[in-house]
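Need tokens for this chain, all 223 residues.
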Amino acid sequence: MSTPSTPQKTSKTSKKVVVFDYGFGNVRSAERALARAGADVEITRDFDRAMNADGLLVPGVGAFAACMQGLKEARGDWIIDRRLAGGRPVMGICVGMQILFGLGIEHGVETEGLAEWPGRVEQLQADVVPHMGWNTVEAPADSELFAGLDADARFYFVHSYAVHDWQLETHNPAMSAPKVTWSTHGKPFVAAVENGSLWATQFHPEKSGDAGAQLLTNWIGTL
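Here are the structure tokens for all 223 residues:
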């Protein structure tokens, strides 16, 4: 199936998506991309609106430690935790994905993340850092996030750090194992995760053209 040039709307009723504005993220780009994908979008850090939206999108740019500090000051850590406890969808982008892991290491400084997943965010192991530009990914065959996209679809990355080792294992056969998507820049790294109500991408879907628009449409379709 070819990458669609015009993403299809998933519902006649727009889903309410809050782009969480905690000072670290391309909130306007995310707002435009989500609106293109059919969502009713609001940029806010208001606690009640963030809690009650159908979906919460957490962007992130810059340093891991700074993003964590900004998130906590806006009570975003508590909002994310409570939403996930109630099975309410959350999606992280770029550093907004990285802070979902247990630990970020930048310039020798270790910063605790939200620990929704175990793992360490470390500098990319590649000859050229940052990883900036378009790249392909290897998604699971049953991925909902990448549904309708060709295997050679390309997404836009801008990052110097990533998770190289996926550590969460699911031993309970009654539980669905997380779906982990990989990309490669030097050494393979985690490019996206689908884990119940928590999804995330290391790349920027809002900057990834039609492929990114389809991916956001897929997420909105699950809300």
